[in-house]
Please model this.
Amino acid sequence: MNSGLPDGSCGPDGGHPAQESPPGGFRPLLRGSQRFDPSAAHRDILVFDDVHKAYREDVPVLKGLSLEIARGEFVFITGSSGAGKSTLLRLIYAAERADQGRILFLGRDVSRLAPSSVPFLRRNIGVVFQDFKLVPNWTVSQNVAVSLEVLGVAPKVVRQRVGEALDRVGLAGRGRDRAANLSGGERQRIAIARAIVAEPALLLADEPTGNLDPQLAVDILGLFEDIHETGVTVLFATHDRSLLDVRPRRVVVLDEGRATDIRHGLNDDAAVERLKVA
Amino acid sequence: MNSGLPDGSCGPDGGHPAQESPPGGFRPLLRGSQRFDPSAAHRDILVFDDVHKAYREDVPVLKGLSLEIARGEFVFITGSSGAGKSTLLRLIYAAERADQGRILFLGRDVSRLAPSSVPFLRRNIGVVFQDFKLVPNWTVSQNVAVSLEVLGVAPKVVRQRVGEALDRVGLAGRGRDRAANLSGGERQRIAIARAIVAEPALLLADEPTGNLDPQLAVDILGLFEDIHETGVTVLFATHDRSLLDVRPRRVVVLDEGRATDIRHGLNDDAAVERLKVA
Amino acid sequence: MKVLERAWRATKADLRLHVLSVFSVAVAFVCLAAALLVVVNIDAVRQRWEQSGRASVYLRSDATSQQVEKVRAALSATPGVGGVRFVSSEEARREVLGASNDDVLTALPPEAFPASLEFELQDDAASERIAQLSEQLRALPYVEAVETYEAWGERLKSLLSGGVSAALLLLGVVLLAVISVVSSTMRMALQRRSAEVEVLKMVGATDGYVRGPFVVEGAMQGAVGAAAAVGILGCIHVIIRSSFDGALGTLLGASPSFLPWTACVALVLLGAIIGAATAAVSLRQPLVGETCS
Amino acid sequence: MKVLERAWRATKADLRLHVLSVFSVAVAFVCLAAALLVVVNIDAVRQRWEQSGRASVYLRSDATSQQVEKVRAALSATPGVGGVRFVSSEEARREVLGASNDDVLTALPPEAFPASLEFELQDDAASERIAQLSEQLRALPYVEAVETYEAWGERLKSLLSGGVSAALLLLGVVLLAVISVVSSTMRMALQRRSAEVEVLKMVGATDGYVRGPFVVEGAMQGAVGAAAAVGILGCIHVIIRSSFDGALGTLLGASPSFLPWTACVALVLLGAIIGAATAAVSLRQPLVGETCS
Ligand SMILES: Nc1ncnc2c1ncn2[C@@H]1O[C@H](COP(=O)(O)OP(=O)(O)OP(=O)(O)O)[C@@H](O)[C@H]1O
Ligand SMILES: Nc1ncnc2c1ncn2[C@@H]1O[C@H](COP(=O)(O)OP(=O)(O)OP(=O)(O)O)[C@@H](O)[C@H]1O
Ligand SMILES: [Mg+2]
Ligand SMILES: [Mg+2]
Model:
C-alpha cells in the first residue's frame, strides 16, 4: 500500500478522530486520504486471494476462497451454519491466521502482520461479534467506551460520543445498567454501538440482528446503511433472508469453503436456488 | 396438584426416565400419569395469573400478565426486543420471582416454591437459553450430558442418549470438540440438545434459531414439532416471522407488559397489524 | 465416588489457585505446629527436672573426703532425702560434655565442673527442709553452692504455661487464617466456575450436588496444607537437631523430640474438617439465589 | 495516571485474590526479614566483643588484695595489654544483673560473680601472648580462670557467616516464592478478567495497554506484601523485646535492635520490583495469540 502514496497523505480529515500509529505499526490509508488519490476510491479495500483455513487437518473450512471487496461497498455474507462466515471475518481482524493464501487489507497482508501491528489494524475495523463479547460486569457505557479509550480519546469526548452511539441503537438512558442485566436484543445493540462508536474504515457485522425483532432488525440495517453512506465499507454476515430482500445489495454466499458472488441481491434466480439448497 | 391424584399414580411410563423426587421436593404429575386421569390431559399445565414483574421499580416489564397454556400445546411467544419474553420464561423455571400474581406449573405456584424444591421443578423443564449458557471449556458431549448426570442416570445410558440428541440436532461426530470451538449456530444446537436430552415435560425455547440459517431453522422447528408430538408442551419465544408462518400455531404477543393471544398463527389480520407496530 | 472424581477434575483445572491456597494454609499450620513443638519440648524438660526431684550440693575442689563424708551423713539423716551419691569433678565433666566436641566447652577449666553430692527429694516437705538446710550447708567452708532446682522448675512451669497459652492463641489465629484462606479460595473457585455452576443449577442439580466437589476440595486443601506444615516442620526439626545437637542437648538435658504422630494426624484431620466446613458455609449464600451470567 | 486508576479498579474488584496473594508474599518476606534481623543482631554483638578486645582474669574469692596487685602488675608489664581494671565481686554482680528483677538471677550466690581483673588487648599479638600467659596465670592458686573471649569471638563469627549465608539462601527462596505467588495471582487475575482482556484486544488495545494494570498490580502486591512483612516483624520484635528484655539483654550484652530503615525501604522496593517484573513476564505468553472466549 505504501508504494502508491507518500506517507504524508495519511492525514486525518475533519470528521474522524486522529488515529495515530507509532512507527512500525499498521498504517492504513484512512478514508480521508482518498481526496488525494481519486483512483484509491475504486481500489479494493479487501482482497482474499486463494485463502485456505482448517481448524483440524481433516476438516477444512475455507478451501481456496477468493473475494474482492471495493472501498465503500456494502456486502452481505451468507451461508449455512458452520459454513465459515465467522471464520472469514476473524481472518480479517487477525483473530485467526490463514493457512495459505493472502488477505490484503488496504494492500497489506494481514496474515503476515507482526503481532505488535495487530492492534493498529484492529483500530481501523469495527466488529459486531456473533457472541457479542461484552464484559458482563461493566456498565453499558463502559462496554461501548472501551473502543475509544484504547485510542486515548479524551474522557469528555468519549462520554459525548458514547451517548450518541447508544442513542443510535435505541439504548439511550440505559448507559448506567450492567450489561449482564440487559435482554438479548439489547446486548446485541450494545455490541453494535461499540463497533460504530470509533467510526472505523471497515465495519464487520457477524449476525448482528439474530436477537432482534423484525422491525428493529430493519432499523439496525438502516443504521448500517447510514454509516455506509459516509463511505464506510460494510461486511454483514447474516442468515436473515428477509434482510437480504430489503435492499438489493451484493450478496456473497459461502459454500463448500468457497465464496460465490451474487451481485444485486437475490434477483438472480439461480442464486436463490443455491441459497435454498445450502 | 396433589389433591386430585393419589401419589401412587406418578409412576414413570416406559418411554421416560424415572425422575425421582425426594420427600418434600417438587412432585409434578409426569406425562405418564395422564392415563390414570383423562381430565388431566385437558388441564392447564401452566397458568399465569395477573403476574407483575419489575427489575427496577420505575420500569415494570410485566404488568398484570395472564396466560393459560394447556398440556401438550405448542405456543409461539413473540414481541419486540425488551418486551419481556425471556423474563416470562425465567419466571417459569424460577430463575426470577414474580413481584405479584401466581404462576402455576401443574397446579403448583412456582413463585412460592421453597429454594430446595426448585431443582426438582427444573428437572421437569428443558430450557434453550437465549445466551446458550454452555460451559466453554467442556466438550460438546459434557455440555449435553450434564442434564442427565444431575438426575443420576447411569453413564452408559447417558452416553447413548447424548449421542442420539447430538444426532438429532445435526452435531453427530462433534461430541469431543470443546464447546468454545464451535460456530454460533453449532453452539445453539448444543443448547437445544441439552434441553431435549432428558425428555422433559415442558420445553422452553428462547430464540433457539437466532443463529441458524433458514433451512436449519425450519429443521430445528421440525425437531421441536416431533418432540411436541410425543406429548411435550412447548413454549417457543422467537422473533423469526417466517417460522410463525411455517405452521399455524397459537401465537402469544407480549406487548406493554401483557400477553395478547392470536390462535392459529398469523391468519388474524388485526394481529398481524399489531405485530408490525410492535 | 462421583463427587471425588468431579472434585479431582476441578482441582486439576484450578491447580494454581489450589496450590496458592494450600501454601497459605500450610503457613498457618506451621505456626501452630511450631508452637505445639515448643510446648512438647518444654514439657519434656520440665518432666525430667520434676521427676528426678533432685538436688545437689556442690563442693569446693579442696574439700577432703572426710568433709564430703560428713555432709553425706548429714543429708542421709534428713527425712525425705534419699539416694545420696558422690559425683566427682571428672564425672561431672564427662556428664556435661558427653560426646560433644565443642571447643569452647572442652576448653573449660576443671573448676567449671565442681564435685558434688547429688541426692533425691522424696516429697515437697523435703525440699523445704533442704531450703533451710542449705543455709547451714553453704556456711561450711568446703561447700561451694546448694542447688535445689526449685527456682528452675518454677521457671520452666511458667514458661510452659506461657507456651500452652501461646499455642492456644495460635490455634485461634490459625483457625481464623485457615477459614479465611479456604473461604476466599472457594469463593474464587466458585466465581471461576460460575458458568459451570449456573448450568448445573439450571438443569436441576440440587445444592448438595453443586456444592459437593467444593466441600471435598476444601477438605483436601486443609488436609494437604496441614500435612505440608507437619512435613516442613519435620525438615526444620531434623536440620536444627543435626546442626545444634550438642549445644541444645546440653541446654535441655535431652535432644529435642518431634510431635507425637497422634498430634500430626490430629493436625491433618483438623485441617480437613476446618476446610470442609468452611467450604460448605462459604458457598451457602450465593447458591440460594440465581447466579448471573 | 490512567493505568493506576485502571489497576486500582481491578484490584478492588479482585480484592480477595489480591489479599491472599499479599498474604503469601508477606510470609515469604517475613522469613527473609527475620533472617536479616538475626544477622544484624549477631553482627552487633560480635562487634561489641571484637571492638572491646577485652580479656578477664577471674580471681578466687579468697584472693588477697596483694595477690591481686601482683597479677595486675604482671599484666600491665605485658606488651600490648592496657587499661587493666579491677572489678570486684559486687561490681560484677551489679553489671550482670543490671536492673533485672529476675528471681533466679538474683538468687545466685556471690560465688557466681567472682572478682576479676579486666584488661584490653591492643593487638592480635597481645592476645597470643595472653594465651601463653594464661597457663601461668591459671597455675596461681588465687586465679580461678582466664577468659580471653577468643573462642567466643570465633564462634560468633562462624554463627554470623552462617546467618549471612542463611539470609542469602532465604533471599533466593523468597525470590522464587514471590515470583511464583505473583505470577500465579496474575495468571488467575488474567483468567478472571479474560472477557475484559479479550474485548480490549479486539478493539485494538496494545499489549502494553492491556498489561499495564497487571504490572501495577504485581508491583503493588510485592510492595504491600514486603511492607506487611516488615510491619509484622516489627510487632514481633517489640513484643519479644518487652517480654524478654532482661534475659536477652544479659545474653547479648545489648537489647536487640531492629532492621535499619534503609533495609526496610530496600525490602519494599525489592518486593515492588520483583512483583512488577513477574507480572510483566508471566503475562507475555498468552497475549500474543488470541484468547478464547
Ligand atoms: N476455534 C475453532 N476450533 C475448531 N473448530 C472451529 C473453531 N472455530 C470454528 N470452528 C469450526 O469451523 C466451522 C466454521 O465455523 P464458523 O464459526 O466460521 O461458522 P459460521 O459460518 O459462522 O456458522 P454460524 O452461522 O453457525 O455462526 C464450524 O464447523 C466450526 O465448528
Ligand atoms: N436482571 C435484570 N436486571 C435489570 N433489568 C433487566 C434484567 N433482565 C432483563 N431486564 C430488562 O427487562 C426488560 C425485558 O427483558 P427480557 O430479557 O425479558 O426481554 P426480551 O423480550 O427477552 O428481549 P429480547 O428479544 O431482546 O431478548 C429489558 O428491558 C431488560 O433490559
Ligand atoms: Mg458464525
Ligand atoms: Mg430475550
Remarks:
- Chain D is about 75% helix and 10% strand.
- Confidence is low (pLDDT under 50) at residues 287-293 of chain D.
- The CA atoms of residues 37 and 259 of chain D lie 6 Å apart.
- The longest strand of chain D covers residues 81-87.
